[in-house]
Amino acid sequence: MKFQILATDSQARAGALNTAHSLIQTPAFMPVGTQAAIKSLDAHDMQEILGAKIILANTYHLYLRPGSALVHKLGGLHNFTKFQGSFLTDSGGFQAFSLNSKAKADENGITFKSHIDGSKHYFTPKSVLDTQYALNSDIMMILDDLVALPASPERIKLSIKRTLKWAQESLNYHKSVISSDLNNRFFNAKEQNIFAIIQGGVDKNMRKHCASELCAMHSGDKFFDGLAIGGLSVGESAEQMYETIEATLPYTDALRPRYLMGVGTPENLVENIARGVDMFDCVLPTRNARNGTLFTSFGKLSIKNARFKDDESALDSQCQCYTCARYSRAYLHHLFRAGELSFYRLASLHNLHYYLNLMHQARKAIIKGEFSKFYKDFYAKRVA
After folding, report:
1. Where does the chain bind Zn(2+) (predicted)?
2. pLDDT of the residue at 384
3. Does 90 appear as a known binding residue?
4. CB 269 within 8 A of CB 280
5. What is the pTM of this model?
6. What is the sign of the dihedral through the CA atoms of 363, 366, 371 and 373?
7. Could you give the domains of the chain?
């Protein structure tokens, strides 16, 4: 993987991230394909219509169903799904906790029960990497010990202790795999990249400590390829999130990509691009689409509202997406009210286009040295 910063404007960065499968221009938003599928969309929609270069798939879900061994047998995620861009896979630790109240972490990993059939499983730093090697994802997230907020200082300290321990184990294991015959068990582990996850709640000193340790961590000549900020958007306010990110980023390596996990609204993205974040993911655009909430240049729009029943205009007059170029608000209102499945596709195409285009416009503004103007215009439209 190669990452280059091509332009900066204050703290905002425009870069280029090269993996084995695609060139990703940053800032970048990764649509979420939890089970190796963006809900209601397929590879053609993602590649040919939206032009997405990277999507996120979920290690926990794919480990349970259909199983990483089957995905490996069928050619890895790229052949299995026919999406030829890049895949980022998370470690599955968040889902092990969020989907099972009986999940329990110890010093070596996480024990949980499948939400599908109740079977018992154990995730370790090595096992989640083995799953991701088999999936052939381009970017692999390591196992971390996340904590919901608010949390006690003692729990956050334990989270960091485990996260750092597991990070070193992950890095050592990845180094051994790419340096030995173990690499032959997989597609080509040398082309797969490993990202660490910074924890610490909203405690600035704990974030500083965790970020500094992960940034310096190595196994021989191997360092983490990128650094992610996890454990946010889990109960804290937006202001706390922004302050935590501002306090964390100075202790990350500016030459490696910075990924903010699971965030968020268009406002969250713009604010964190301004603070120096390069990569984002969130279920919000597709989940909101299925519920009838569409993102536009002027704010959110609820298509279920009766006032759209005979509205001939497009969802967003400034949008050039597949949906806006073809269909009226009235038609989309009808599809939603009638429960037509085609609504999910058209609404998801629009919302994802909005998010991807927001990244494109932010990037263009950074390169031109006009990010401040972009930022002000973004909010001015919402106030109007």
Report:
1. 319, 321, 324, 350
2. 55
3. yes
4. yes
5. 0.96
6. negative
7. 2-281 (3.20.20.105), 289-381 (no CATH)
